[in-house]
Amino acid sequence: MLEQQADPTTWPEGKERLAAVFKTKTRDEWCELLEGTDTCFAPVLALWEAPEHPHNVSRQTFVGVDGVVQPAPAPRFSRTPTSLHSPGRSGDEALEFLEEWGVSREELDDLSGAD
């Protein structure tokens, strides 16, 4: 199979074979097997898992701002500090902004489901 990997006509069969192999273990089993090797891999994480993954923790990929976890500013340079923004606005403040940007009260009511 590997000797033919550049041949697109073999890709559907190769995809099926790889899928069958991947299904033989859970994500956590694959991580246990591959962690610490020179294999280039990364698990697919749920949004709530990503900030706690050791790779992301060691690189400070996520930060907390006003109690909200969010991606850290990127890129990060050693001599150029980045700044963090507030995680957002309250519902009322968001409505004020939308009105300032020209969204009508009727459109806002339609979006919110208000009667």
Written description of the protein model:
The chain is mainly alpha-helical and 115 residues long. Helix content is 37%, strand content 7%. Strands 1-2 form a two-stranded antiparallel ribbon. The mean pLDDT is 86.
Q: How would you classify the helix and strand content by structural class? A: mainly alpha
In percent, how much strand structure appears in the residues?
5-15%
3D shape: extended
Query: Ranges with pLDDT <50 over ≥5 residues?
Result: none
* Main sheet strand line-up: 1-2
Helix content: 25-40%
Number of strands: 2
How is this fold's topology laid out?
Elements lengths: L10 H12 L4 H8 L19 H5 L3 E4 L2 E4 L19 H10 L4 H8 L3
Antiparallel strand pairs: 1-2
Compact description:
Helix content is 37%, strand content 7%. The chain has 115 residues and is mainly alpha-helical.
List the defining traits of the structure above.
mainly alpha, two-stranded antiparallel sheet, single chain, 37% helix
